[in-house]
Design brief:
- The chain contains ten helices and seven strands.
- It has a seven-stranded mixed β-sheet with strand order 1-2-5-3-4-7-6.
- A hairpin with a 2-residue loop joins strand 6 and strand 7.
- Helix 7 packs across helix 8.
- The radius of gyration is 34 Å and the shape is elongated.
């Protein structure tokens, strides 16, 4: 053996495995445990402040099947409460919302019957329009559809057959015939109706400063109300009379289109009537305001036939903005609006 081979030095180094990254793993598990415990004690605290009588309602909510919740079963709470089936919030509020009465199974069944009655009325009206010689000739101007608020009947304008005299609320003879034919039909159901007037976007020469499309649409809606009652509709069936101007156009791409000038009759369903009643209920803040002011300075809204009316206009009608190529003006008097001055105007909304 040579000298170089016997003197070879071999160094063995022990491989040290660094386990430092595993030293903090327990912290993650501990943090998750503490989060779960905090959530548990928070739930226990919330349950402890809820009255014992309401605990079964909370338990019933969490036991509610998903299918029942999706199909709006009887366990669904439709009132203004924090927890369905439970009680209002335990945290006091200086201005609490008015709590609505919880809906029962009977209420839900009554709403379904009401919906079916409205659909039957829609079918009856469609048959009446097809069989009545007077209404059949105006079929293109009568639009019927179901909305979340109820059955809507829209009487739209046509360029060569306007419902009202230009720029006024004077009802044309054929429009009067339509409304008086429809009036008695609304007596077949106990549901109330709302009447809305709509115009196109063409403004008066004075703009919004004086008599405008807001007053005009309200006056036309009120004129339609009078014709419905003259035809035999019960006066107390009118819930609201609204003037919406051109804010809700039927043809949004062409706000000046003739069909945007229309009268909308909405036969309200039970849910829509409840919502209107809740919105117009006198709140505690208004009562406090009346007490503070001693009843002075607070006036009741203008009413027509015992019902609220929005934007009922008075005064002399200013001229409409003239449009080149438009037909000539049609003068007319309205029962609620004085005659127009003899000035140039376009066939308006």
């Amino acid at each position: 053996m040579s000298h170089s081979e016997s003197d070879r030095i071999v160094i063995r180094r022990k491989k040290v495995v660094n386990n430092g990254t595993l030293h903090g793993a327990w912290k993650i598990a501990y943090a998750d445990f503490m989060t779960a415990m905090m959530s548990f004690f928070l739930i226990m605290w919330l349950i402890s402040i809820v009255p014992a009588a309401d605990l079964p309602g909370i338990a019933a909510y969490f036991r509610m099947p998903l299918l029942t919740a999706i199909t709006r079963g009887s366990q669904i709470d439709e009132s203004a409460k924090v927890i369905p089936g439970g009680s209002p919030t335990a945290i006091p509020s200086k201005s609490p919302l008015s709590a609505s009465k919880p809906r029962t199974t009977d209420d839900i069944d009554a709403d379904r019957r009401d919906q079916r009655n409205l659909e039957d009325l829609k079918t009856e009206l469609e048959k009446l329009i097809e069989t009545d010689p007077l209404l059949r000739q105006f079929r293109p101007q009568l639009l019927l559809d179901m909305t979340p608020e109820g059955l809507r009947i829209q009487i739209v304008d046509q360029q060569n057959r306007p419902m009202f005299a230009t720029g006024s609320a004077q009802v044309q003879p054929y429009m009067r015939d339509i409304l008086r034919e429809l009036g008695p039909v609304f007596n077949k159901l106990p549901n109330n109706i709302t009447i809305s007037g709509h115009t196109d976007a063409v403004q008066y020469a004075s703009g919004e400063r004086e008599y405008s499309n807001w007053e005009l649409s309200a006056d036309r809606a009120n004129a339609a109300r009078k014709e419905l009652i003259a035809g035999g509709m019960i006066e107390t069936k009118v819930k609201r009379v609204l003037g919406l101007s051109s804010s809700v156009s039927l043809v949004k791409d062409n706000p000046n289109a003739a069909v945007n000038r229309r009268i909308s009759l909405l036969v309200l369903n039970r849910e829509a009537e409840r919502r209107i009643d809740e919105q117009n209920a006198v709140s505690e803040s208004l009562t406090d305001l009346k007490s503070a002011l001693g009843g002075s300075g607070i006036h009741a809204p203008m009413s027509v036939g015992g019902k609220g009316v929005g934007s009922v206009g008075t005064g002399v009608l200013p001229p409409r903005v003239a449009v080149p190529g438009a037909p000539g003006d049609v003068q007319g008097d309205s029962p609620s609006v004085p005659p127009q001055p003899a000035q140039s105007a376009k066939p308006g909304p």
